[in-house]
Amino acid sequence: MDPLAGTLQACLWARALSPAEFQRVLAGVVVRGFPAGSIVCGRGEPVNAWIGVVEGLVKLTTVSLSGKETTLMGVPAGGWFGEGSLLKRERRKHDVVALRESRVAFMRGTTFRWLIEHSLAFNRFLTMQLNERLGQFIGMVEYDRLLAADGRVARCLAGLFNPVLYPGNGARLGISQEEIGLLSGLSRQRVNRALRHLAADGLVRQEYGAVTVLELEGLKRFET
Known about the structure:
Strand order of the largest sheet: 1-8-3-6
Radius of gyration: 18 Å
Distance between the termini: 48 Å
Strand content: 15-25%
Low-confidence stretches: none
CATH topology of the largest domain: Jelly Rolls
CATH superfamily of the largest domain: Jelly Rolls
Largest sheet: 4 strands, antiparallel
Oligomer: single chain
CATH architecture of the largest domain: Sandwich
Shape: globular
Helix content: 40-55%
Order of helices and strands: HHEEEEEEHEEHHHEHHEEH
Number of helices: 9
């Protein structure tokens, strides 16, 4: 089997496509590799592709006029993003940066719009995806304003295990404390303390370069 075909068939949105629709998609997707720290897409560029993370981890980030950087979200393997900008035909409003060596899929905008026009299943997926993404961002605003560091780390991890936005991750995610810090806006040292507290509560298990979630619902409810 073509490796790209196998990658796409594992995607939640592709499972309900007809064989003809899938072949159309296959012809409209390319996969590129990016080293850690590199720009996948830059702010201000025309948005001409729907983006999926095949391997690795990327973050969406923006920088204020004063130079302060803010991470909007992290996207692990299995996640697709950028549909809103494609639908609005606007320029990209943030940078997409590879936190580690990553392989990223790009579906051409023409292919994406063809799917919208011809696939009811894909439209249903997009409705679910946009609704889930809205809930994710509302939750991020809430925990950023209301929660202390431990709670921010808990919600950050819970968001990376969203079964709709990032299917197929299982309970274990390869992510370092430094990467969690970049996504949650905390230092690596503060993330380390938070993870130890969460582990003591039986919510996660720390491993070298990875975190295993033992109680996802507990992470979602954590408020300390």
